[in-house]
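Journal club prep — side note

Before the paper discussion, L.F. wants everyone to see what a predicted structure for a comparable chain looks like in token form. Sequence:
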Amino acid sequence: MKRVCDTQKYIRVAEVCVAATLTETHTMKSSERWSKATSILKEFEEQCATPIGKLRHVADAMTVEMHAGLASEGGSKLKMLNSHVDHLPTGIEHGLFYALDLGGTNFRVLRVQLGGRDGRVVKQEFTEVSIPPELMTSTSSELFDFIAKELARFIATEGQGFFLPPGCQRDLGFTFSFSVNQLSIPSGTLIRWTKGFSIYDAVDKDVVVELTESLDRQGIDMRVAALVNDTIGTLAGGKYFNNNVAAAVILGTGTNAAYVERAHAIPKSGEMVINTEWGNFRSSHLPKIISGMYLGDIVRRVLCKMAEETGIFGDIVPPKLKTRFILKTPEIKLKDIFGISDISFETRRVVVELCNIVATRAARLSATGILGILKKMGKDTVKEGEKQRTVVAVDGGLFEHYTEFRSCLKSTLNELLGDEVAHTVVIEHANDGSGIDAALFAASQSLYSEV
């Protein structure tokens, strides 16, 4: 089984101990205590084992749940939400489109000029704005009025290289990264806030209506063409640049997947994009828990157990080691986070090995989830005489920055598929650092994109 250890990027295990002088002050007081720590690590490794046979069982279980989720609402561990999206960008879209990405204490606005199949992305510009803290707990109208005013300022800077067809209205793609019950492509009601927001009068309201009313108050002639889930946006952006993209996966702080479902699989519907909400999936064979939100805390829990039972960090357990989610996945730094400095080389080696185990498990299970989707789409086999190429667009910091995680995911998927099918499946990074996906999605839903 391939080991995962990337000391330069996402986990930065090389910074586990950044003490000015590494001493042996807290080495094991006895061979028994060291043996106990090794035993805990070995037991944890066995619990995290992902043999190929078990992974195939997980993929099969996921495919069964996908079928059940499409057949009836609430009939599956997977929500299998109908996104109402029945067509994605094709590359022929042209015109001027805007995007608004609201997902935290900052929001981004972007404009892009599309030139059709030949011109593609002709020009794009964006700006990022910080939200005043008081607006995160104020009222819905105050928050969206602030956003609309900033959007108006951005529109006012629209210069050479950007133009609308005569008589057309500007279209906007709105990425809203909070829990929403999406009613149609351009509408959805807020279920709950996260990330420090607590604007109670916005809950259960259509966020597109709230934004549109603020745009009207600012005198902005703009239509919100699409409310965009980040996973659907990744799929849309991937499809725009590569027509073989059939699924999208997010592997970052959170995780999710979306794919294009065949017409016959959805009653009374044509081809449709399905939002799986696979973060909710649980298998009796293996629980998933694969996103960046959890990996650091899994490491912390095992370290805490070691500290309590073996004294690996000295006679006193570092108090911060007991704080849930204090250890973020991007930076496992014992000195900076826990105040642990003088530890032995052997202890540092245990921490590295622990990170390897946790990350390898997550990468292999991520590959298994992708296999489940490929099986549901009928892309896990090669049909005789048919040229087949399936691209899965993947985004998120865990996939983008953790090089060996990405490598392990790909090699595991190849192992699961076998050589013949593996040659027809491509895992492609779909980086949307500019926020262009929402604009491309708005273009695909536009009233004038084919004018």
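L.F.'s comment for the group: Residues 1-28 have pLDDT under 50 and may be disordered. Keep this in mind when we get to the figures.
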